[in-house]
Amino acid sequence: MSERISRRTMFGLGAAGLAAAAGAGALATRSTPQQPTTAHAPSPSDPFPFYGPHQAGIVTPAQDRLHFVAFDVTTTKKAELVSLLQEWTAAAARLTQGKEAGSFGAAGGDPEAAPDDTGEALGLPASGLTLTIGFGPTLFDDRFGLAAQRPAALADLPKFPGERLIPEISGGDICVQACAHDPQVAVHAIRNLARIGFGRVSVRWSQLGFGRTSSTSRAQATPRNLMGFKDGTANMKLEDTELLRDQLWAAEQDGSAWMAGGSYLVTRKIRMNIETWDRASLREQEDIFGRDKGEGAPLGKKQEFDAVDFAARRPDGQPYIAEKSHVRLAHPSAHGNAHLLRRGYNYVDGSDGLGRLDAGLFFIAYQRDVRKQFVPIQMGLAKNDLLNEYIQHVSSGLFACPPGVQDAGDYWGRSLFG
To answer: What is this protein's function per UniProt (predicted)?
Structure first.
């Protein structure tokens, strides 16, 4: 492995956070863009389309790396916020196709001015980069006259039993989710958006992630979380057209016409007590999840995708799947058939002062109505899940992700601000 690749790979394991400096942005390629011939990127190097009825990065087959950022809006002028969203959209359209953020790029233009692009992704392909934006509840306060347009589904999350949220890494006015197969490409995208936003937004918090913990397409194998178990076996997939229509995409009849074609995002940073978990017996670990660790099959079954049978009993008469197991409590049958589209990531943010890994799951879930989906599911888990002994929710985010950008004359959030 080359020295350069080794440095880039380390981005996926580093701590969150990226500062922004001054700048602007507008046109020039970092590599020759490859035009996809289908709705899905044919290889990890190629681009996904940016324009469409829904934002990319939701049902897009989950990429390997994440850089997620939440911004606070610092300007008090609505016109400046709209201008920023327009500039961001133009830059995002370029970046996702393997181009530089601005027209003069990292090495062109006025040598006495800051470059249009920071340059660390020069020579790298698009790497399946997607950029997805969302608006937090705090954006709908009295600063920009948006209070009447706050969707009912963007209701503040309740306090869940046992959570210990850190305010500094929770919330935010605007979020941007960057997913790519190369961590340097994802970091480059967020860095340049933050640079463009200087003076109008500031970074509130950010998170790097690696090793996706969900599949969003049936073409993908189910990945594993840092506890060693397959994660997201029952996740909604892009092929589930009717389920996505019913449970993922907001509709005009939901009460907020500007969100039609969008979706609601919940993030949770879930720290795992890794060292304690690693000393638990295999039987205990499997009973907690309700699946076997090797194949990922529901206990009492043989294959990962075998139907879960909650009535099945062991020879001693006890249920194979415990009443407080994660699988049973999270199952759609326990919550009125509520589903989530998950696309979370593992994270390792170094270690704490006691020498324990600061590691776990950065949970990401999209849905049509948080009140009917995430909230009842998480409330049931928070109250009863056997897994709670080994995890701690430390941050939370809630965002309304608008519909997709239709063409070059459109911009992120136009349905809200236009």
So the answer is: Involved in the recovery of exogenous heme iron. Extracts iron from heme while preserving the protoporphyrin ring intact.
- Phi, psi (deg, nearest 5) at residue 209: -140, 155
Q: How far apart are CA 86 and CA 405, in angstroms?
A: 11
pLDDT tens digits for range 15-61:
333 333 333 333 333 433 333 333 454 688 899 999 999 999 999 99
Residue 269 · residue 15 · CB < 8 Å: no
Question: At what angle are helices 183-196 and 3-10 packed, to 10 degrees?
Answer: 60
Q: What is the tens place of the pLDDT at every residue in 57-112? A: 999 999 999 999 999 999 999 999 999 999 999 999 999 999 999 888 888 888 98
Q: What is the DSSP letter of 255?
A: S
> What's the one-letter identity of residue 274?
I
- pLDDT tens-digit series, residues 108-156: 888 988 889 999 999 999 999 999 999 999 999 999 999 999 999 999 9
What is the token pair recorded at 363?
Answer: 């949970």
pTM: 0.89
At 130 the three-state DSSP class reads strand
Q: How far is residue 64 from each of residues 12, 53, 114, 184, measured CA to CA in Å?
A: 9, 24, 31, 12
Query: Can you tell me the distance from the alpha carbon of 377 to that of 83, in angstroms, rounded to the nearest whole number?
Result: 38
Give the Å distances, CA to CA, from 103 to 192, 198, 205.
13, 18, 29
Largest separation between any pair of C-alpha atoms in the chain: 78
Query: Who's near 209: CB < 8 A, 6+ residues apart?
Result: 12, 65, 66, 67, 68, 344, 345, 346, 347, 362
What is residue 24's predicted lDDT score, i.e. its pLDDT? 31
Residues 354 and 59: their CA atoms lie apart, in Å, by 39
- Residue 235 in tokens: 């996740």
Rounded to the nearest 5°, which phi and psi values hold at 327? -60, -45
Which residues is 135 bridged to in the sheet?
Answer: 174, 400
What six digits make up the tokens of 268?
């949770």
User: CA-CA distances (angstroms) from residue 290 to 315, 320, 323, 335, 340?
Assistant: 17, 8, 9, 18, 19
Q: Sign of dihedral through CA atoms 37, 39, 40, 46?
A: positive
